[in-house]
Amino acid sequence: MAATLTEDLIQIYDALFAAFGHQHWWPAKTPFETMIGAILTQNVSWTNAARAVRNLEDAGMLDPHLLAATDTADIAPLIVPSRYYNRKAERIREFSRVYVAEFGADPAAMAAVETGELRKRLLALRGFGKETADTILLYACEKPVFVVDAYTRRIFSRYGLLPEGASYDQTQRLFAESLESDAELFNDYHAQIVRLGNTICKKSPLCDRCPIREVCGTLRCAVGRG
Ligand code: SF4
């Protein structure tokens, strides 16, 4: 009998977990640090974003009240490693202002807002796309929202579960409609996808080392089969 989509997705996750172990995301000490990290990692590797986060921390600036009140010209030099630093300084300051004014700089107050409403509020901020908003919803607010990135689309289209060029929403629906709405599962599943995409399912994939190549005991991946 053919495996259902749900079974496929669970088996893929189990195989990734068995290969890589729990990923313990998001790598941050506080929810606010996660929120700032989500902005800083836009269009750059996490390594670069992490350097910018550390600079803010070392300067004593990883504080919503300080960032909300500081001139962007003073924020930008600290986040140079994240590239696009002038734009990101503006985004960080605007986000911090909203976080202070509308949520009292309290992650619990932010997380208490209904998911759809909070997502809409985040998406209304300048420079906030779906991946940034969903990253904050999942990793800072622990909402069961599946985060989609380029790795997700690449891996699951190669695997044959998504068409080439699938949209963000189409990719998100694949997981949201097939898996239990579980923030812990979504947290680690996305982290596993990033690990696979970063180390094995690259532009030139290393299929012979791939832990999901033979999920269900058969060669399932369209590329890995070759
Ligand atoms: S088998 Fe190859 S193409 Fe398929 S997911 Fe693994 S690394 Fe990517």
Automatic annotation (TrEMBL):
<dbReference type="GO" id="GO:0140078">
    <property type="term" value="F:class I DNA-(apurinic or apyrimidinic site) endonuclease activity"/>
</dbReference>
<keyword id="KW-0408">Iron</keyword>
<dbReference type="GO" id="GO:0046872">
    <property type="term" value="F:metal ion binding"/>
</dbReference>
<keyword id="KW-0479">Metal-binding</keyword>
<dbReference type="Pfam" id="PF00730">
    <property type="entry name" value="HhH-GPD"/>
</dbReference>
<dbReference type="GO" id="GO:0006284">
    <property type="term" value="P:base-excision repair"/>
</dbReference>
<feature type="domain" description="HhH-GPD">
    <location>
        <begin position="40"/>
        <end position="199"/>
    </location>
</feature>
<dbReference type="InterPro" id="IPR011257">
    <property type="entry name" value="DNA_glycosylase"/>
</dbReference>
<dbReference type="InterPro" id="IPR023170">
    <property type="entry name" value="HhH_base_excis_C"/>
</dbReference>
<keyword id="KW-0004">4Fe-4S</keyword>
<protein>
    <submittedName>
        <fullName>Endonuclease III</fullName>
        <ecNumber>4.2.99.18</ecNumber>
    </submittedName>
</protein>
<dbReference type="InterPro" id="IPR003265">
    <property type="entry name" value="HhH-GPD_domain"/>
</dbReference>
<dbReference type="GO" id="GO:0051539">
    <property type="term" value="F:4 iron, 4 sulfur cluster binding"/>
</dbReference>
<keyword id="KW-0540">Nuclease</keyword>
<keyword id="KW-0411">Iron-sulfur</keyword>
<keyword id="KW-0255">Endonuclease</keyword>
<keyword id="KW-0456">Lyase</keyword>
<keyword id="KW-0378">Hydrolase</keyword>
